[in-house]
């Protein structure tokens, strides 16, 4: 593994210019398939007896560079990129779990993930217990005989709770299940969950890693440390009917999981990333470190300013001393706490909606991690289908506004919010 620093790896890791025609930029290999030398060659590739490209649903040279680079930046042994962050989560869980299995998950997950676990996976016999992650012991308490994974977000979206990954990982280890960490909001530049005991790290590449809102993508990164032969995962120790009797743990050793994600997960679920999107994401990844630093600085400054505004009831940003996650943020995110800020306004649901509608620099849309500033009022949009109780547990109160603070000049962002605040009275009281 490279001994170079993050910024250098983000620009150079795993792109050998001598084998890619001398191209300084990573080239886009826009091809669905690869010509075999002969049938024996093809047979060796399919039997994993020789490495090589087969079909872009399984692997691709552009995607391969992105995969290796992201694995290097997170400290993993391998990675698989997927069509979206959601595809990364889904492919991971369907690779590991079977009907009858159980998940223990944090209750402050991204809305889409919450629905996958709460509504869709139960249709296939995979159930989840959601726990308050602020007490790591809750994971242990909720673990059952059939529990097979713990699932958390390092920095919850949109609750912005910083999780004690080390403490939760201890409970995962004592229960002999892998800890899966969605590290999307924190990014590998600010936090590497594997250092604190995560077994699998997931990102939506759509957010800060791509960084300018052009492409969807996801990644699954394997720490390569989990013992799949501990008796709980027959998928890895018994001959796989899905891959001509391959015993993953015997043949692929510590890479058993990430290999199965590729050769069965991508093959059967088909959520492959377009090489064109991989190229776009590589452009973003190159500047991740300086962008996320600026996102974090702008977000902290704006959060402090919001605290002083009379229309603002509360502000949540883990970099604020007033945040209940401040101590954990200093431990896990000392370099910066990313670009998402939430706050509540006097006037509740209606006033919050006015602000989301009236800002002009902040675009009203459902995304985070763009260079441009974004705003949303989740209770009236992304989280409208959740019950009051679910909204409360996911951290989405009626008055909550979520900002994804971009790279614009801070004074312009303040002016935009100020003029939106001035419209509250007129609209809500009418
Ligand atoms: C956006 C997001 C996802 C889903 O990613 P997509 O690329 O939109 O599918 C998952 N987790 C978190 C924390 C996210 O913010």
UniProtKB/TrEMBL annotation:
Gene3D superfamilies: Aspartate Aminotransferase, domain 1, Type I PLP-dependent aspartate aminotransferase-like (Major domain). GO terms for cellular component: cytoplasm. GO terms for molecular function: cysteine synthase activity; O-acetylhomoserine aminocarboxypropyltransferase activity; pyridoxal phosphate binding. GO terms for biological process: cysteine biosynthetic process from serine; L-homocysteine biosynthetic process; transsulfuration. Keywords: Pyridoxal phosphate, Transferase. Signal peptide: none annotated. The modification N6-(pyridoxal phosphate)lysine is found at residue 207. It comes from the Bacteria. It holds the Pfam family Cys_Met_Meta_PP. Its cofactor is pyridoxal 5'-phosphate. Belongs to the trans-sulfuration enzymes family. This is O-acetylhomoserine sulfhydrylase. It comes from Gillisia mitskevichiae. The lineage of its organism: Bacteria, Pseudomonadati, Bacteroidota, Flavobacteriia, Flavobacteriales.
């Amino acid at each position: 593994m490279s001994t170079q620093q993050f910024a250098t790896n983000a620009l150079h890791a795993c792109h050998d210019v001598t084998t890619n025609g001398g191209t300084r930029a990573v080239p886009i290999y826009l091809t669905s398939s690869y010509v075999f030398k002969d049938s024996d060659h093809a047979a060796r590739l399919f039997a994993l007896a020789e490495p090589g490209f087969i079909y872009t649903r399984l692997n691709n040279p552009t995607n391969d560079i992105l995969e290796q680079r992201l694995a290097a930046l997170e400290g993993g042994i391998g990675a698989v990129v997927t069509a979206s962050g959601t595809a990364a989560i889904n492919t991971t869980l369907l690779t590991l779990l079977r009907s009858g299995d159980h998940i223990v998950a944090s209750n402050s997950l991204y809305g889409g993930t919450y629905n996958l676990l709460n509504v869709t996976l139960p249709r296939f016999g995979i159930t989840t217990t959601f726990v308050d992650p602020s007490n790591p012991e809750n994971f242990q308490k909720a673990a059952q005989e059939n529990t097979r994974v713990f699932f958390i977000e390092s920095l919850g979206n949109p609750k912005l709770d910083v999780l004690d990954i080390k403490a939760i990982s201890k409970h995962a280890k004592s229960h002999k299940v892998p800890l899966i960490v969605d590290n999307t909001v924190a990014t590998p530049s600010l936090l590497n969950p594997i250092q604190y005991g995560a077994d699998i790290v997931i990102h939506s590449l759509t957010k800060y890693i791509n960084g300018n809102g052009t492409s969807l993508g996801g990644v699954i990164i394997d720490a390569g440390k989990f013992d799949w032969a501990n008796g709980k995962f027959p998928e890895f120790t018994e001959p796989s009917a899905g891959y001509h009797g391959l015993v993953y743990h015997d043949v692929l050793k510590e890479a058993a999981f990430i290999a199965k994600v590729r050769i069965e997960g991508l093959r059967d679920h088909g959520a492959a990333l377009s090489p064109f999107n991989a190229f776009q994401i590589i452009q973003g990844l190159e500047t991740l470190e300086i962008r996320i630093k600026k996102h974090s600085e702008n977000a902290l400054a704006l959060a402090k300013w919001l605290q002083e505004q009379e229309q603002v009831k509360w502000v949540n940003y883990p970099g604020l001393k007033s945040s209940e996650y401040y101590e954990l943020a200093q431990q896990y995110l000392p370099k910066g706490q990313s670009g998402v800020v939430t706050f509540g306004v006097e006037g509740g649901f209606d006033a919050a909606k006015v602000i989301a509608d009236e800002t002009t620099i902040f675009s009203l849309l459902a995304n985070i991690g763009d260079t441009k500033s974004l705003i949303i009022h989740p209770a009236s949009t992304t989280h409208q289908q959740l019950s009051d109780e679910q909204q409360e547990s996911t951290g989405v109160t009626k008055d909550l506004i979520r900002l994804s603070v971009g790279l614009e000049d801070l004074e312009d962002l303040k002016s935009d919010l100020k003029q939106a605040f001035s419209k509250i009275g007129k609209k809500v009281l009418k």
